[in-house]
């Protein structure tokens, strides 16, 4: 699934299972860090720009879904994030859960344009080649199913932000967060007034 869907879904779970901003951010990060292994794309484009050639996607294809989409990555990410946590046991456990939720979402919906372009989950990588999982019915990355999931988690995120008084914008700082929540609450007040 797209990184933004992973982010919103992870933030929703983190908001429910933690009770302070720091732990919430850490658990959210556990749900988006797996895609850090796709940053080879930046190196691919940078190399192509420097050499004036078409991008080859070498680093992206070499490492994406292989470096941080298995159990070794889950343990490494959870261990790293737990160092900064307030409630360490809970954060360690929830980082593992959210990380695996990311893998499950990728298994469901990260197919390329053609039906044969399946993205498997190589759960033992980068240490072991097996097991390798894939789902033949995998949704297209830009398919309607993924778009539906995005709209659901986006709507839930807005609803939770209004209810709780903090939003996913907290990653941009307290001021941005307060501004987003204030706008959302104004919209809700307007809408409530209009429907009374
Ligand atoms: Zn992923």
Describe the protein.
- This protein has 196 residues and is mostly helical.
- It has helices at 3-17, 21-32, 40-51, 58-63, 71-82, 88-109, 144-164, 174-195; strands at 121-122, 132-133.
- A two-stranded antiparallel sheet has the order 1-2.
- Bound molecules: zinc ion (ZN).
- The site of zinc ion has 5 residues, from helix 6.
Fraction in beta strands: under 5%
Query: What ligand molecules are bound, each kind once?
Result: zinc ion
Would you tell me the overall average pLDDT? 92
Gross morphology is globular
Count every beta strand, where a strand is a DSSP E run of 2 or more residues: 2
Order of helical and strand elements: HHHHHHEEHH
Q: Total number of helical segments?
A: 8
Percent in helix: 55-70%
What ranges have pLDDT less than 50 throughout 5 or more consecutive residues? none
Radius of gyration: 19 Å
Structural class: mainly alpha
Offer a few descriptive terms.
single chain, binds zinc ion, 2% strand, mainly alpha, two-stranded antiparallel sheet, 196 residues
In short:
By secondary structure, this protein is mainly alpha-helical. Helices cover 62% and strands 2% of the residues.
Helices, strands, pairings?
Elements: H1 3-17, H2 21-32, H3 40-51, H4 58-63, H5 71-82, H6 88-109, E1 121-122, E2 132-133, H7 144-164, H8 174-195
Antiparallel strand pairs: 1-2
Helix pairs in contact: 1-2, 1-6, 1-7, 2-5, 2-6, 5-6
The structure holds zinc ion.
């Amino acid at each position: 699934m797209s990184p933004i869907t992973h982010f919103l879904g992870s933030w929703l779970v983190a908001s429910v299972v933690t009770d302070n901003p720091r732990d919430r951010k850490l658990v959210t990060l556990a749900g988006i860090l797996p895609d850090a292994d796709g940053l080879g794309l930046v190196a691919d484009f940078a190399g192509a720009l420097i050499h004036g050639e078409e991008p080859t996607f070498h680093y992206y294809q070499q490492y994406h879904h292989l470096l941080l989409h298995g159990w070794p990555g889950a343990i490494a990410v959870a261990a790293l994030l737990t160092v900064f946590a307030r409630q360490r046991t809970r954060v360690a456990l929830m980082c593992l859960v959210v990380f695996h939720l990311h893998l499950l979402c990728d298994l469901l919906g990260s197919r390329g344009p053609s039906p044969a372009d399946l993205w498997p989950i190589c759960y033992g990588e980068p240490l072991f080649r097996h097991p390798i999982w894939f789902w033949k019915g995998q949704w297209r990355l830009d398919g309607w199913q993924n778009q539906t999931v995005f709209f659901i988690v986006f709507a839930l995120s807005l609803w939770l932000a209004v209810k709780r008084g903090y939003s996913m914008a907290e990653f941009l700082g307290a001021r941005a967060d307060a501004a987003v929540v204030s706008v959302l609450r104004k919209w809700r007040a307007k809408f409530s007034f209009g429907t009374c």
